[in-house]
Amino acid sequence: MDSDAVFDADSINGDNNKILHPLYTVSSVGTDRSENLSCSSCGDWCYFCDYAGETGLAVDLRAHVHELARRGYEVPAIAKAVHKIYHRDLRPHCERTLPNGSVVSAPDWKLESVTRHLVYGGEFSESIFQTSVVRNIFTHLVMRLQQRVLTEDGVVDEAARVALLNTIREQTNWRRSVNIGTVSAPQNSAAGKRRKP
């Protein structure tokens, strides 16, 4: 394909006439958003979506999410903590307005809906997706790769070694790019300094 050619979206289908759908759509019509993995594709109620921008509540749930992510908790643990706090402290003070205008007091916020928002909600893309999801993907990948490096004779398989080291290199580069846990030599180290008499 000529790199200077104008991109033609219809050309991706070729001759097989596949019907392709959006990877993500911003349409306000619910049925057009069924491909989205985020809250916009789901009929479940979400506290974070419905109370976006709200202030003055007794519990700052968003700050708690960011803090748990900063401390290295995995998504399931964060979701359970958020779910528990919502039902214990916030639910009695919340309302959900249904499409027909009726109001539901103290709406249920399902754990699945909490997790969906944490992973796909843009407000947590750095604190949750980067520091928890991507970090754990790399960790699991490295650990699974390193379990399959030696042959039965105790010889290092070259392809497996290369895959493992390349993945570790990519993980290191990713950690630097998002400034997560980069290790550097301590400044002003006492090593090598002469003591004053």
Would you write up a description of this structure?
The termini are far apart. The longest helix is centred in the C-terminal third of the chain and has 22 residues, at 125-146. The chain contains six helices and two strands; from the N terminus they run αααββααα. The protein has helices at residues 47-50, 61-70, 75-90, 111-120, 125-146, 158-177; strands at 95-97, 103-105. The chain has 197 residues and is mainly α. It has a two-stranded antiparallel sheet. Helix 2 packs parallel to helix 5, helix 3 (75-90) crosses helix 4 (111-120) and helix 5 runs antiparallel to helix 6.
Task: Provide a compact summary of the structure.
The chain has helices at residues 47-50, 61-70, 75-90, 111-120, 125-146, 158-177, and strands at residues 95-97, 103-105. With 197 residues, the chain is mainly α.
Salient structural properties:
about 200 residues; mainly alpha; disordered N terminus; 6 helices; 2 strands
Q: Tell me the helix content.
A: 40-55%
Radius of gyration: 24 Å
Tally of separate helices: 6
Specify the overall morphology.
elongated
* Secondary structural class: mainly alpha
Q: What is the overall pLDDT average?
A: 79
Strand order across the largest sheet: 1-2
What is the percentage of strand-forming residues? under 5%
Unreliable residue stretches = 1-5, 182-197
Calculate the terminal CA-CA distance, rounded to whole Å.
75 Å
- What is the makeup of the main sheet? 2 strands, antiparallel
SSE series? HHHEEHHH
Tell me how many strands there are. Answer: 2
